[in-house]
Every structure is written in structure tokens, then in C-alpha cells.
Predict the structure of Endolytic peptidoglycan transglycosylase RlpA.
Amino acid sequence: MTMVAALALAACAAPALNPVAPEGAIANETRGDAQRGQASFYHPERFTGRPMANGEPFDPESNSAAHRTLPLGTVAEVTNLRNGESRTVVIEDRGPFIRGRIIDLSPRTADELGMRESGTAPVEVRPIGRQANAGRDE
């Protein structure tokens, strides 16, 4: 009986297996391997002001982007593989839902990447961190 009580007390004193990350730390899932695929962009007349997955209204002049799996609030670098131009975006929405496309960009970001005229471009998307005020992903 004494042995059982000692074991029970020892189990209670064991360190936690999943320690909490220090405040300000970046979650591992928001940094990682680059993905390659096609980027497209939001049509400004159809989507301006409509709520995104994070609840905020879409602004075509923002650096917002939509991705199917990266957590909301993830900061990513998007590089146009045709011309080498790169921009930083924040994942604030879900999509795209067209086969072969991996990210939807704001019209402003599409302009800056030199892909607005063609409508799509081959890109590399590399998660680089998490927005400081990002909440938990749903």
C-alpha cells in the first residue's frame, strides 16, 4: 500500500509533457516548408467589404491572402516564380477552391507581384511567422 501511494505521488510530480511556449513565441506550424503552385487574386468588385474567415472585411489594398490550410494569422512570403518578385502577406481567409491554386492574393499584392494582367502566376509560398495579434485558428 505504501508503494502504491509513493508511485501515485511521484506521478503527480512528473513534469508536463506539453509545456506552454513563452509569450511571443511563434508556433512551429506557421514556419515551414515552401509550397509551390498557382496563385490567383480576389476580384475587387466581388469581394471588397465581404467578411473573410477572420471576420474582418476584405480590403483590396491590403496584404491579405487566402490559404486552405495555413493557420489564420500566418505571415508568408509569396514569390512570383516568373519574375522573382516577392511580397509578404497575412493569411486571413480560406481558399482558393480551384484545383491547382494554392493561394488567393489581394489585387494590390497581385499588382506588386506583376501577375494582375495574367490573372494567375506560379508562386512559392513560404510561411515565415505569425502576426503578433493573431488569435487561435478555427
